[in-house]
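Notes to self after the Tuesday call (sharing in case useful).
The group wants a holo model before anyone commits to mutagenesis around the pocket. I volunteered. Ligand is cobalt (II) ion. Logging inputs and output together so the record is complete.
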Amino acid sequence: MSRTLDHLFDRNVAWADAKTREDPDFFRRMAEQQAPHYLWVGCSDSRVTANDVLGLDPGEVFVHRNIANIVHTSDLNLLSVLEYAVEHLEVQHIIVCGHYGCGGVSRAITERRGAMLDHWLQPLTMFYRKHRAVFDAIEDPVRRLNRLCEINVEMQVRRLAATPIIENAWGRGQSLNLHGWIYAVDDGILRDLGPHLTSVAERDALSSIDQCVLDPVEPQSAKRRQAIAAFSALALEEEPQPGHDPAGCVCCNGQGGPKP
Ligand code: CO
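Result:
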């Protein structure tokens, strides 16, 4: 086995060359500063890389990843990243993104215990045990795991919203949106799970997380949204609505669809 990783250095040179060919100023811009609008809190899973799944270049998203995208409010690593992103970079959006089939979430519901990882996953394990009857009622083990992956996102957005860093930002009027998303490794599509939070009041108005276990939300992907819009446009073509001209319509931006 090779002791060095020359092939990775070679790939790096090829990447930098290609990047410069397609955009000669790219690295000059990168050297000046980073001004990302987004902070991504995701899983360490090698298949869920923020820039790739968002289609963003380097410099466009600030990233923190750990096993199962857990927000521990005593985690100095996460809190340092969060503070820097909120107070210095002044990101406008923080995305907690889980993924279906997460190995970390899967570990949280096994009986195996004793590794450092199990300490890390403790909040999720305790939540699963508390609601075990609800999860066990889901017969398909894949669906059961994926349901917990979804709830984990909900839980971590709430934990993020409870940190003094976020509370203080909202308190001083900073525009800051928290999002809960989930990614499917088998189709490459992101889905919006919520909650979407922009203030302490919105956070405090949420129903309890114990209630969320009983009321699954339908994750929304852009594909689904686009399909609904396309269907509405089609229905409009077939059955024109009196008084609604999509070309000049301010409510649907010329996209068609039923007038609200
Ligand atoms: Co994972």
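Two things stood out.
Confidence is low (pLDDT under 50) at residues 248-260.
The chain has two domains: 33-218, 222-260.
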